[in-house]
Amino acid sequence: MNPGRSRRLMAAAWEGLWGHRLRAALAAGGLLVGVAAVVVMVAVGQGTRNQVLERITALGTNIVWVHAAKRSFSGTRGRTTSEVVALQPADAEAMARLEGAETASALDTRLLRISGPEGTTDSRVISALPNIFALEGQGLREGRYFTAKENRARKRVAVIGPTLRKHLSGDISLVGRTIEVKKQPFLVVGELLPKGVDANGNDLDDRLYVPLKTGQSRLMGGRRHVGLLVARAESEATMETLVREITRLLRQRHNLRPGQPDDFSLFTQTEIIKRREESNRLFSATTTGVAAVSLLVAGVGIMAVLLISVKERTTEIGLRRAVGARRRDILWQFLAEAIILGLAGGGGGALLGLAVAVAVRLFGPLEFALPVGPALGAGFLGLAISMVFGLAPARRAAGLTPVDALRD
Questions:
Q1: What share of the chain is helix, strand, coil (3-state, %, to 5)?
Q2: Domain co-membership, 194 together with 325
Q3: Helices of type H across 114-161
């Protein structure tokens, strides 16, 4: 097709759309919204993924968690059975001595009522060994950590998180002051630096840390077992070996015979990241499917607009055929209208999506690279959908004979 004919066809297509500009704008608008939604979903999904991975890896990717599991056992005379949690603080000490282990800690958590000078709240109380702060990378804002000597002596001392401090005393420091945990007085010896929220949305600053033996004897009814062990490997390279050694060690310490199931479960940061990645992929697939449906709906709208246009302009098509226009000229004219709608909707949607993504990045908490590639892809997809759905009306218009068109 020579350039002059192409320009005339594009001009005729533009005139056809301009004559019904409101209808054309609505058709292109549907495509625009669909493409913009795809771009924004990709940007938000990427930002959420980055944020979650940042929170998961905040402690490092060389952390191993050992959760307690319940198992049945028979009493000394074989008459009774009950359920016990098998993890002990001594297990953490043994884990810390394994080759490839940097440190290990035992801890237990309870949701308890805590009272301060200006408020009372239910918060997470963590009973742990003193090395938990180094293992979790907890920094001090004020005061000090509790010590191993205080843990052995079961001293009622505590280290508080900033969110919990706000609940109990507002902006007033609690270091050196006494609070009540389960109606028992505890001296606050330190306040931690803010940590934010974890991957599950839990506030890591709404916590109170107390010595493990203090928590077990004074807050948890004298229990001797713990619900969680945490170990840090010397490096990521030693993680697999350390996991195997921890499994072997705990099975040996818990007297588990070959074939017996573990009475504990191990998790690593890598496994958590994999699970999050699977969730993100599922979320991305779902949002992409929703966006694809919206684009298909927009394509149906474009096809409807062009079919109505063909019906209304049947006489015009007949006259053009009568004065020498060929079938392919009519085909390309209406296909050009679909291309114009696709360019307006796809290109405009890509630009709008990028603008919204920029606004989200500037004024929101998410950090992500601008999805320029997905925006271009979504824009071209919108154009392709417009052309595909515009082909049927164009073929219908090109199939009209001059006699039939003029008679209609």
A1: 55, 20, 25
A2: no
A3: 132-136, 148-152
Non-local CB neighbours of 400 within 8 Å, separated by 6+ positions: 314, 317, 318, 321, 330
Q: Mind listing the pLDDT tens digit of every residue in the chain (408 residues)?
A: 555 556 665 665 666 666 667 777 777 787 888 888 888 888 877 777 676 666 655 555 678 888 887 655 554 444 444 445 678 888 998 998 898 888 899 998 899 999 999 889 999 999 999 999 988 888 899 999 999 999 999 999 999 999 999 999 988 999 999 999 989 999 999 999 988 766 566 788 899 999 999 999 989 877 888 888 988 888 777 888 888 899 999 998 888 888 888 888 888 766 666 666 676 677 777 777 777 777 777 788 778 777 777 776 666 666 666 666 677 767 777 777 777 888 888 888 889 888 988 888 888 777 777 788 888 888 888 888 888 887 777 777 666 666 565 565
Same domain, 124 and 95: yes
- What does the alpha-carbon distance between residue 200 and residue 55 come to, in Å, rounded to a whole number? 9
Instruction: Indicate whether 101 and 29 sit together in one domain.
Output: no
Q: Are 80 and 189 within one domain? A: yes
219 and 255 in one domain?
A: yes
| Residue 32, H or E segment | helix 21-56
Structural domain tally of the chain?
A: 2
Rounded CA gap, 119 and 128, in Å?
25
Q: What's the Cα-to-Cα distance from 200 to each of 33, 64, 128, 294, rounded to whole Å?
A: 31, 18, 21, 30
Q: How far apart are CA 365 and CA 196, in angstroms?
A: 12
Please give the residue range of the domain that contains residue 335: 3-55+274-407
Q: Quick count: other Cβ atoms within 10 Å of Cβ 297?
A: 13
Q: 314 and 253 in one domain?
A: no
132 and 233 part of one domain = yes
